[in-house]
Every structure is written in C-alpha cells, then in structure tokens.
Specification:
Shape: globular
Number of domains: 1
CATH superfamily: Vaccinia Virus protein VP39
CATH topology: Rossmann fold
Structural class: alpha/beta
Strand order of the largest sheet: 1-10-11-7-6-4-5
Strand content: 25-35%
Radius of gyration: 15 Å
Distance between the termini: 25 Å
Number of strands: 11
Amino acid sequence: MPAGNLTDSRNAVSYSSRMINGYIKWLEKQVAPEILDIGPVCDITINFFLPRVKRIHINDVFQWLHKNGSGKSLTKELNYQPHSFDAVHLWDCIDHIQDSTAPALVQAVHSILKPGGSLVITANEEVFQPWPLNSFAVMEDCQVVLRPQPHIDLPFTHWKNRDILHLMKLFTLKDSFVYTCGIREFLFRRE
C-alpha cells in the first residue's frame, strides 16, 4: 500500500516512515534492548536510536562488500553470539548483495536475533539505474532522509516483494509499506 510523501529538497529524498513509528513503539516496550544496525554508518540514525536502547552495535558491511564484492558471504562479518540482539536493521542491504548469498545472510541474522526480536529491512521498489547506495538518516518524527554514498560502488539487485517474503520465511511479516519515493520497508519478527 503506498504511504508517505516524497520530499525532494536539494536532491535529498526523504519520507515519513510509518513502519519506523510503529517499530519504535515496540522497541520502547523492550527491557534494555540491544540492536544491530547494518548499513552505511549514519550518525543521525545512531543518535535517533541511542536514547531508546541500552546499546547499539554498528556494522558497516558495505565497506566490506565494496572491498570483497557483493557475491561474498557476509556471515563472517556477522559473527555474533546467537540471540545477541533484540532487533537488527538491514538498511538498503538486500539490494546490494547477490541472490546466491542472501540466504546465508538471512540465516545469520536469524541466529543472532533473540526469539521475539524484530528485523527491519529497507529495499527499493523498482530498478533504478543508476541507483546509489544510500545511508538512511532517521530523524525525529520518523522522517527518513536518504543520503547517497557514491564512494561505495556495488551492483544493484532488485527483489520483488514475493521474493523478499520467500527469502524471509524464517520470520513472520508484521508490517510493510511502500512509499512514493520508491522505498519499501518491512518489519519482520522472529517468533
């Protein structure tokens, strides 16, 4: 279902995230949550989540993918103890890994996520050419500003909704939104 409004100010794409709004309400009910933020490091997003969690762990896998190629498995980069996190964020990650390595990524995330934990995924609605890798700057009032990261060059893989849902079959879909700016957001739970 389309949601949100596109704002294009000085080439900055932004939208109001309904999914993050609901996710934050869930997160604030958790006791001392720890989250893992996977994607380009974004100080604005870190500062948004810091007051809401006990600890935020950052893993900028995009630098690793840029260096090693998107066809390589990320499982070594996600070498955390099982059930370490209450939530995992995959910002724009799924769009920049090859479909042959995606199942290993999903299995690794499933392992490190606590039962009942949340998985946040952002993905592009359509194939954009060229489409830069973006960091997602989450602001107060759940405004999200996409900040292009042109220094990181990775191939783009378009995932259809049904393919994402099939890939995430270890999880339960709780919410999803499509925004007019072409971003899709998914909220999954590990039951």
